[in-house]
Amino acid sequence: MSEQGTQQGEERLHSARAIVWARRRAALSTFWRLYRTQRAGLVGLAILIAITLLTVLAPLYTDEAELRASNAPGGRMESPSTEFWFGTDQTGRSILLMVIWGARVSLQVGVVAAVLAVTLGTLIGMAAAHFGGWISWVLMRLTDWFIVLPNLVLAIALVIALGPSRITIIAAIALTSWASTARVVRAQTMAIEGRPYIERAQALGAGHWHQMTRHVLPNLMPLVLASATLQVSSAILAEASLSFLGLGDPSQPSWGTILERAFDAGAISVGAWWYMLPPGIAILLVVLAFTLCGRAMESVLNPRLRDNT
Amino acid sequence: MGKLSTTQASVSPPGGGIGAGDGNGNDLDGDTPPRPERSAARRELWRYLAGRISGAAVSMILVLFSAFFIFRIIGGDPVRAIGGDSPMTPEQRAEIEERLGLNEPMAVQFWEYVKDLFTLDWGESYVSSAQVTDLMWDRLPNTLLLTGTALILAAGLGIWIGARAGWKQGSFFEKSQVGISLTLWSAPTFWLGMIVIIVFSVELGMFPVNGMRSTRGVADGFWPEALDVAHHLVLPAVTMAAVIYAQYVLIMRSSILEERNNDYLTVARAKGLRDAVVRRRHAVPNAMLPTVTLIALQFGAIFNGALLTETIFSWPGLGLLFYQAIKIPDIPLLQLLFIFFAGTTILANLLVDILYRFLDPRVRRSA
Amino acid sequence: MTPLLEIDDLTITYRSARGEIPAVRGISFGLQPGDSLGLAGESGCGKSTVAAAVLRLLPRGTQVSGRIMLDGEDVLKMSFGTLRVVRWAGASIVFQGAMHSLNPVQRVARQIAEPIVLHEHISASAAEERAVELMTQVGLPTWRARSYPHQLSGGQRQRVMIAMALACSPQLIIADEATTALDVMIQAQVLALIKRLVAERDIALVMISHDLSVLADTCDQLAVMYAGKLVEHGPSHEVFGNAQHPYAQALSAAFPIVGDPDERRNPQGLAGDPPDPAALPTGCSFHPRCPVAMDECTSTTVELRAVRHDWQAACLRVEAEPTQPPAATPSALGVAAGPDARERDARAQERDAGSQERGAGDLRVRATSEDDT
Fold it and tell me: How far is it, in rounded angstroms, from Cα C220 to Cα C304?
């Protein structure tokens, strides 16, 4: 974008809101310019876009009906062929088809759980930083408690207690992984609140809500987004682990569920590598892609990390 | 699970701020004898210890309470879990409820629970009707063996490689090690285990597929048995170590990066030390401090790994016990293991916090 | 007598994401055993780069050309093995100790002893004994040997750095901003200590600072750097009191004498910022800030010219008059001519006398707010 263009745009602005949006657009374009220099981040982004397209467009190039065991087109545990690139499972369904459809569950659970966890973490972190005193003490103790506990064990306990379903899994993952975000957000909120304009807003009588939503949150957003991206990776891994342990959503298989079935069907002892490779690689790729993107975002946001490369 | 982040902004050394020293004050204060400083430091240390221990105690109480809450209040129908799918007469049902004390009011049940905790009466397993504590003690050594081996492997190798990668930032070595670590971290532990078994046991036949001892039996005596166990240990230990290793490499690398541009390293180089000695003697000890804190925070993740690895390899440890209990679900056993895992993590963190005081001479004053 | 340190046409270029950045652009000077040279200039002028280059401590990928002869051997051509032997034993550096120059998790005596163990192959305990001895010599109580750096004050840490530099009895010590972060009282103590030790041991000293008054007090010779070049080099009292190059004049004028009504009415400062090393001005790089710049200055590259046989300046206004002392012919610079220059001379003498009587810089107030990194 040319300098001139920006100037002209600014002249046309009237309301404060328009100025704010122009500033955000400018910040976003700066962000993208810096992000583009992160090669690993671009690779991650490309993988994510490709997998999202494959997942969303799945109904166009596959037949969902073949997912039902009664409708299975192949024989039992067939090895890879031209018809079934990665063979079939114990009921004769195509592994590749199951993996393509499994992406929906894995991605959905991962993204929703991560968004929930980060929202929860942001709220708690901001509250702990803003209110101080005993509220902060209680919230931070709780945060530390959740950080320290073996979160998979806790998530398992919750899913067992509530009964396996997609909502339970999402809730259990979100509830056991918000704490690291809360910590980062708390530290960042305290840094932001130390800035002069917040004090000015306070002096002008801005309420808690106004300060938080208008001043602190916009400044936190980049950090929160980076945190959310990294959180998706952990959430997808957590979902896979829970499903593998038999606590997955029984109605629709995710990648973890496919691996559980492979394990139960004794795919290991017959050496049916084709049964295990596709779902595992799918998990690995998606988790890696989200991690690469998250790390690239962090490097862009943290000048100290960026400079020493 | 633990989030994989390049920043360490969120981690501060336990005990808060690092003492800034006497500052740039009067140069002559150096003549005061060390006595008062030491006793003040000692008092400070006790206050610190008291704070940490009471914090851990609060965490532990929270664990006990949540164990009751999760498993007794919202945790399904224990009667059905015991009976399985077989139909049950109302009399049988009432009898079980009576035995488990399910008819009592919640408050009474909680009181009974706390009383049982302190009298170490943790109940019987739904399945084997053995005391759950006995089941746990039976399996504990096996888990310690696997976890300990994996941890030593991962920590030693991870810190070593991580330090070298951070030291040579921008080199091919660093980039490839970071790439390997990120990939290992992204792989689900249980899937890694499955692949490892297929390749090394099923196809190559180098290692046993699962278990901890050969079923065929080996020659009597300590050494043949130990060798047999070691042979079974290789694959699960390596699998479990892989993910932890990846974390340690990344943590140590970023700690070294933080230290790398510090002036004291230039001083060390100016003294005529070899590059490797500068790294080992000066950079690594300083980078170890934040690493220790981060490792302690991720301690809980080790149990996640143990649970999945033991399941895949049928390693008869606590993780497999937990997995078997999930399948039932065997509530008293799950409850005990939950408390044990959480308690161990809290204890380990407490120990690291205390250890940190002695490792880092700077942490004298807690903010 | 061969010089102990001889730097000849030293050119150093850093490589960065923005391209090549010249930090030092062809400087030369020599130092005899027992000599002391003060190297002055604003932050970023390349003076610390010179210090690091003497022990080849520059970041990997930095381009260095020219010669650095240390005791007859070219440092730039040494093998790594020889270099490691020369480091610290041949020449050592007093780093700025106030901040991060000491390893925070090692006791100070061990850090002082480290080069002794390395270079003299004696046991660690014997080396630590020597370290404690050195600490006494720099005025630190012996029980401080077991302290960690954070337990020491800034002045004490600086003393540790000095003891460390002395550890292997080098012939040359480079003090890089050794007193910058200290307050005035401590600065005076540390300077007096450096002066005493250098005199006692007949060590050659290169002292680097942005504070010209400190350098004039401690060193026989002064060299002023600007944008990677030497712009003036000569005896301390001349360069400080009677500078020929307008930049050197501005630097010395930046340290007014307290109570001098003339200076209060007419404060001397230098407008503008140091030039960006990646985009240096043409001709004399000082011309954009120079109060007496001429048209020629924008195009002509100026090399050092002799003001006297032992005194050089790189300014077109300096007429080479090697036989006549400059006090007789008032400075070639129009602005500084006339009674003004004589007054300046008188003031410089007074300053010299004062500093001898009262010790270092205790009455001077720092007028610059510059801080060097």
Answer: 19
Please indicate whether, in this complex, the C-beta atoms of C155 and B22 are within 8 angstroms of each other: no
* Interface check A136 vs B, CB under 8 A: no
Question: For A219-250, how does the pLDDT look when each residue is reduced to its tens digit (9 = 90+)?
Answer: 888 889 988 999 999 999 999 999 999 898 87
Establish if A293 belongs to a structural domain.
yes
Identify all chain C residues contacting B272, using CB atoms and an 8 Å cutoff.
83-89, 115, 118-119
The C-alpha of A229 sits at a distance from chain B's nearest C-alpha, in angstroms, of 10
pLDDT in tens, A80-103: 777 777 777 777 788 888 898 899
pLDDT for the residue numbered B226: 86
The shortest C-alpha distance from B33 to chain A (Å) reads: 38
Distance of alpha carbon C315 from alpha carbon B147, whole angstroms: 73
Encode pLDDT of A67-85 as tens digits. Answer: 777 776 777 777 777 777 7
| Res. C247: pLDDT tops 60 | yes
Cα–Cα distance list, B8 to B250, C73, C211 (Å): 11, 46, 38
- Give CA C38 to chain center in angstroms: 4
Q: Does A117 touch chain B (CB under 8 A)?
A: no
Examine residue A3 and state whether it is found in any structural domain, yes or no. no
- Tell me how crowded residue B223 is: count the other CB atoms within 10 A of its CB: 9
Is residue B330 classed as helix, strand or coil in its secondary structure? coil
* Residue A63 is assigned to a structural domain of this protein: yes
Q: What is the nearest CA distance from B307 to chain A, expressed in angstroms?
A: 9
Decide if A233 and B186 are in contact by the 8 Å CB cutoff: yes
Mean pLDDT (whole number) for A294-301: 88
Mean pLDDT of C217-240: 88
The CATH number of the domain covering residues in B134-366 = 1.10.3720.10
pLDDT at A110: 94
Which of B6, B70, B183 faces A161 most closely, judged by CB atoms? B70
Q: In the prediction, which pLDDT does B359 show? A: 78
Which of the other chains make 3 or more beta carbon contacts under 8 angstroms with chain C?
B
CB atoms within 10 A of CB B216: 6
| Cα diameter, chain A | 74
The model's pLDDT over B304-313, given as tens digits with 9 standing for 90+, comes to 899 999 999 9
Q: Is residue B329 reached through a cis peptide bond, with omega within 30 degrees of 0 on the bond before it?
A: yes
Going by their DSSP bridges, the two strands C5-16 and C19-31 should be labelled as antiparallel
Domain count for chain A: 1
Residue B101 pLDDT greater than 80, yes or no: no
> Which residue in C176, C222, C227, C314 sits closest to C46, CA to CA?
C227
Of all helices (H) and strands (E), which one includes residue C160?
Answer: helix C154-166
| Structural domain spans, chain B | 41-119, 134-366
Name residue C266's amino acid.
N
Q: Nearest CA to CA, how far is C115 from chain B (Å)? A: 6
Residue A6 covered by a domain: no
- Using CB atoms, pick whichever of A158, A273, A288 lies closest to residue B182: A288
A101 contact partners, CB below 8 Å, separation of at least 6 = A58, A62, A64, A67, A252, A253
Please state, rounded to an integer, the average pLDDT across all residues of chain A.
Answer: 84
Which CATH number characterizes residue A117's domain?
Answer: 1.10.3720.10
* pLDDT (0 to 100) of residue C286: 86
For residue B281, the distance in angstroms to the closest alpha carbon of chain C comes to 10
- d(C-alpha C25, C-alpha C40), whole Å: 15
Size of interface B-C (CB pairs under 8 A): 111
C118:B273 CB<8 A: yes
Q: Quick one: pLDDT at residue C318?
A: 78
DSSP single-letter state for residue B204: S
Domain hosting residue A208, numbered range:
14-308
Pick from B18, B22, B360: CB nearest C153: B22
Of B5, B6, B304, the CB nearest to A152: B304
- The continuous run of DSSP H or E covering A52 comes out as helix A39-56
From the list A150, A245, A299, which residue is nearest B303 (CB)? A150
